[in-house]
Amino acid sequence: MLRGVGRLFGYAWRVLDGVRRGVHLVLMLLVLLVIVLIFAQRPAQLPDAFALVLSPQGVLVEQYAGEPLQRALEAARGLEPDQVLLSELVDLIDDAAADGRVTAIHLELDGLQGGSLDKLERIATALVRFRETGKPVIASAAFLEQPQFYLGAHADELYLDPAGAVFFQGYGFYRNYFSDALDKLSIDWHVFSAGEAKSYGEPYVRNSMSPETRENMQPIADGLWAAWREAVAEARRIEPAVLDDYSNEILPRLRAAGGDLAQTALDAGLVDGTRTVAELERRLAETGARDEDGEYLGVFADEYQAALGLAAGVTETDAGAPAVGVIVARGNIMPGYQPPGSIGDVSLRELLRRAATDDDVKAVVLRVDSGGGSALASEAIMREVEMLRATGKPVVASMGGVAASGGYMISIPVDETWAHPTTITGSIGTVAMFPNFGRLMDNVGVSVDGVGTHRYTGELRLDRPLSEDVKEMFELVVDEGYARFKNFVAEHREMEPAQVQRYAEGRVWLGEVAVDAGLVDRLGTLEDAVASAASMAGLGDDYRIETIEVAPDFAERLMADMLSSVMDAGWVGSPASWLERLPSPVRSVITDIDRLGELSDPRNLYYHCFCDSF
C-alpha cells in the first residue's frame, strides 16, 4: 500500500515538474520574443526633408500618472486616459527647430484633451521659437475647443476640416452636489470646516454652491478667461472682443452661416481656411516636405523621437556636472508611498532626501501641481522641505496650474516661491468629513449593539450616529488645524497674522493677486524658477537640469517594453475605456466619487481644494 502511495506521489511530482518546465519554457520564449521585437524595431533613417507631425493625444501633464508597468498594462486594456508629457513635447519642438531636415511642423490638435494655461503657454512659447527659424507651423483640427484653439492660434496657419467647428465656452467651476441624494439614501454626511469659503465639503451638505464660494470663484474664472483671451487674441491678431462675442453670440452667427459651423468660425476670423486632409498635405508639401516622387512626406513624433535616439535621464557626459534638481509633486497628497501622478508623503520625502544627499545637485526646484489632500501628509512633506533647505542648498518652489491648500503648504518653506499668473493658489483652510450610515441601516432593518471598555469605544463606527461629544472633538481638531496652517504661512512668508487672515478663510487666488498679497514671491515659468535656483547656487549658465524621480527597475522596464512592443505589433488591442463610453454627466459624478476615494488621512482632516476649472 505504501508503495502504491509512493508511486502516486511520484507520478504527481513528475506532472508538476513537467508543468513547471513548460511554464519556464513559455516565459523564456516570451522574453526572447520581446528582445527580438525590441531590436527589430530599430528606428529608420530619417529622410532629407520632411514635415514633423505632432499629434498630442490626451491631457498635458508634467509627470505621467502611475508606475511604468501599471501604465503599460492599463494602456493595453484601454483603462488609462491618455497623457502627454509636456517636457517631451517641448523638447521635440526645440529639436525640430534645430534640425535642417524638418521643413515645417504639422500640429494636429484633435487628440489634445486639455491642459492648464501655464502648460499651454510653454508649448506655445516653443512653437514661437520654432517659427523664429523661418519654418512654418501649420495647425489643423476637426473640432477646436479652448485648449486646442490656444495652441492653434500660435501657428502660422490654422485650418479647420470643412465639416469641423470651433466652440469654446469660457472658464467655470462646476461640481455635483449630493445633499438631496444622500438624504434620500438616509446617509448623514458630517462636514466640519474652518474658513468660510472652504468649499471642499460643500457638495455633501448642500444642493448648490454657497454664496461665499461663488463670490470667491467668479473672479478666478474671469481671470483665467482674460488671460486666455489676451494670449489668443494677440497670437491671432484679432480684437479680444471678437472672442467674447463669438462665445456669447454663436447662435446668431451660426444662423447667418446657414448652420455651417466651419463657415461660422471662418467668418469670425478664427481660422485661416477649411481644408481636407489631402489639401493639407499639398500645403505641407509646398514647404519642401516631399519624397523622391514629389509626394508629401511627414514623419510622426514617435518615429522622429526614436530616430534621434532621445533618452530620458542623465547621460554619461552629464554625470558629475553641477545640476539643478527638479522634483515634480503632482496630484492629491496622501500618506505613504504613492505612484507618480499622486503625492505620497513617504515617496516624495525620499526624493527630497535624495536631492539633499546628492553632491551633484546644487539647488532644487519643487514643481507643485496639486490641490492638496491629507493634512498629516502635507505637514510631513512641508517639514521635509524645511530639512532640505537646512542643508544649505537653495530650494525654489514653482507652481503649476494649481498649488492650493496642502499644495500651497508644501510650497512655502523655501527660499523663493514662483507662480504662473494663472496659477490657482491659496485655499488656506481646513475640513474634516465623516459619513454615517446609521439611518440607512435602520431603514433596512439592521441594528447595532455591543459592549466596550471605554466611553468612546465604537463611537467612530460608520453605522452608529455621531454623538455631540465626538462632533465637538472634530470641530476642535479642525479649528486647531486651521490655526496651524495660518501660523505656518505667517512664519514662512514672514507675514503678520492679520495679513494672513485677510487672505485665508479657504479663499483661492490667481498668481497675480497672490504676489500682491505676499503669498508668493514672483511670477514666472518653471524655466524662470530653475534659472533663479541656479543663480542662488552660483552656477551661472553652466549647469544641467536633473529630474529627480523614482526610476523603474529592470523587471518593470522589461515588462513595459514587452507590452509596448506587443501592442505596436498589433497583437494586443486597446479597447476604449469603459469610463469614456459613459455620458458626460455620469462621468462627472464618478470622477467626483473617485477623487473622494483617493483621499485618506488618519484623522479625516484635509487641506484640500477642488479648484479644477472646466
Chart the SSEs and their pairings.
Layout: H1 2-40, E1 50-54, E2 58-61, H2 68-77, E3 83-85, H3 86-98, E4 102-108, E5 112-114, H4 117-131, E6 137-144, H5 146-153, E7 157-166, H6 179-184, E8 188-194, H7 211-236, H8 240-248, H9 250-256, H10 261-267, E9 273-274, H11 277-285, E10 298-300, H12 301-308, E11 323-330, E12 333-334, E13 343-344, H13 345-357, E14 361-370, E15 372-374, H14 375-390, E16 395-404, H15 406-409, E17 416-419, E18 424-426, E19 430-436, H16 438-443, H17 468-493, H18 497-502, E20 508-510, H19 511-517, E21 522-523, H20 526-536, E22 544-547, H21 554-568, H22 584-598, E23 605-608
Parallel strand pairs: 1-4, 1-10, 2-3, 2-5, 4-6, 6-7, 7-9, 11-14, 11-22, 12-13, 14-16, 16-17, 16-18, 17-21
Antiparallel strand pairs: 8-19, 15-23, 18-20, 19-23
Helix pairs in contact: 1-21, 2-21, 3-4, 5-7, 7-8, 13-14
Largest sheet: 8 strands, mixed
Low-confidence spans: 1-9, 310-317, 566-579
Cα radius of gyration in angstroms: 28 Å
Backbone shape: globular
Number of DSSP helices? 22
Helix and strand composition category: alpha/beta
Strand content: 15-25%
- State the distance separating the first and last CA atoms: 77 Å
How does this model look, in words?
With 614 residues, this protein is an alpha/beta fold. Helix content is 45%, strand content 19%. It contains 22 helices and 23 strands. The strands form 5 sheets. Strands 11, 14, 16, 17, 18, 20, 21 and 22 form an 8-stranded mixed β-sheet that branches. The longest helix is centred in the first third of the chain and has 39 residues. The chain is globular and about 90 Å long. It starts with a helix and ends in a 6-residue tail after the last strand.
